[in-house]
Specification:
alpha+beta, Rossmann fold, OB fold (Dihydrolipoamide Acetyltransferase, E2P), five-stranded antiparallel beta sheet, binds adenosine-5'-triphosphate, ABC-type transporter activity, ATP binding
């Protein structure tokens, strides 16, 4: 177990492509950190620099207080698990796990103890005599995890380790990985582009875009207090609805308005708008914070339902405001149907406000 620190870590490919740019991060001992972002945002590049598989252009990698930026990979005491969980097909599960330990010339009885210990941790004790061809995808991935765990790394690095599994198994393995992490307490960096995977596993999420960190925070931080439009749009399904609105001040009241929506700003958050000295603003409202109501007065818009997507536990309702599709997550009952007219209000406390130019979240809400 160890701490990790990245200081201005940057990687330039060729002349002008930055795979990662000025990445700064402090990871605590035993933390489960997830790098999250769209394809090409620099997650893998950053992970590979931590592992020592990618040369660093600028900056530092510090593991347990020691500068390892130029140390070769095997001396860093990190273990990496890849998307294509390369288990050796000609070796039994036992030998797959034992192999790296044998390379280290560890005594046989000690190897035996560790293999059994990690096999139990990832629940493959019954499979030790089998060959990988006799295993399911999920079991093979567990072998790869066990092998990575066996060497007792200081830091566990995982690059989309679940993405080759089918959807159901992925969800199951998430829970298992989290439980394994709980048992081992190993400092872990996990890369994914799947936001629900990130939300369900991370102690803290590092949201990346174009090689840079956009926000670092707990799943609740990035969801409820998204730092900017990008993060608010990337995290959450269905995604956040964004509206560019005019700020209309009238007789002490403030309204946020566009052609379709009129939101009266509650007293409690007026000061946020007062401080913001522009005429336009971006409002972000998550689909579950748009509420269907009978109360004409509190409605921010009234519209015909375009489609209803039943999800069992809830229903996703889409309406069209101009050329924008707006999504509302409503409870499973009462049932709604297409063409029905609904009145919609919002949970003002959960409304997100962003600067129209910088797209950063306004302070104070
Ligand atoms: N060997 C390379 N040569 C040139 N450019 C590269 C190289 N490897 C990565 N890049 C570029 O660096 C950027 C970051 O790539 P990286 O693989 O880290 O992204 P990622 O977030 O892991 O994406 P994905 O989810 O698709 O794996 C991308 O623009 C990519 O095209």
């Amino acid at each position: 177990m160890a701490t990790l620190e990245l200081i201005n870590l940057s990687k330039r490919y060729g002349k002008n492509v930055w795979g990662a740019k000025n990445v700064n991060l402090k990871v605590n001992n035993g933390e489960f950190i997830v790098f999250l972002g769209p394809s090409g945002c620099g997650k893998t590049t950053t992970l590979r620099m931590i592992a020592g598989l990618e040369e660093v252009t600028e900056g530092k990698v510090i593991i347990d207080g020691k500068d390892v930026t130029y140390l070769e990979p095997r001396k860093r005491e990190v273990s990496m698990v890849f998307q294509s969980y390369a288990v050796w097909p000609h070796m039994t599960v036992y030998d797959n796990i034992a192999f790296p330990l044998r390379l280290r010339k560890m005594p046989m009885d000690e190897i035996d103890k560790i293999v059994k210990e990690v096999a139990e941790m990832v629940k493959i004790e019954e499979l030790l005599k089998r060959f990988p061809s006799q295993l399911s995808g999920g079991q093979r991935q567990r072998v790869a995890l066990a092998r990575a765990l066996a060497v007792k790394p200081k830091i566990f690095l995982m690059d989309e380790p679940l993405s080759n599994l089918d959807a159901k198994l992925r969800v199951k393995m998430r829970t298992e990985l989290k439980a394994i992490h709980h048992r081992t307490g190993a400092t872990t960096i996990f890369v994914t582009h799947d936001q629900s995977e990130a939300m369900s596993m991370a102690d803290r999420i590092v949201v990346m875009r174009n090689g840079k960190i956009e926000q670092v925070g707990t799943p609740d931080d990035v969801y409820f207090y998204s730092a900017n439009v990008f993060v608010a749009g990337f995290i959450g399904t269905p995604p956040t609805n964004f509206f560019k609105m005019n700020i209309v001040r009238n007789n002490g009241e403030i309204h946020l308005k566009n052609n379709y929506i009129d939101i009266k700003v509650p007293e409690k958050i007026k000061h946020v708008i007062e401080k913001y000295n522009k005429d336009e603003i971006i409002v972000g409202i998550r689909p579950e914070n748009l509420l269907i109501t009978d109360d004409e007065k509190s409605a921010i818009f009234r519209e015909k339902i375009l489609v209803v997507e039943p999800q069992g536990s809830h229903q996703v309702i889409a309406v069209e405001l101009g050329d924008q599709i707006v999504k509302i997550v409503a409870p499973a009952f009462p049932k709604y149907s297409a063409d029905q007219i609904i009145k919609v209000t919002l949970d003002h406390e959960r409304m997100m406000l962003f600067d129209v130019d910088t797209e950063s979240r306004l302070e104070g809400i």
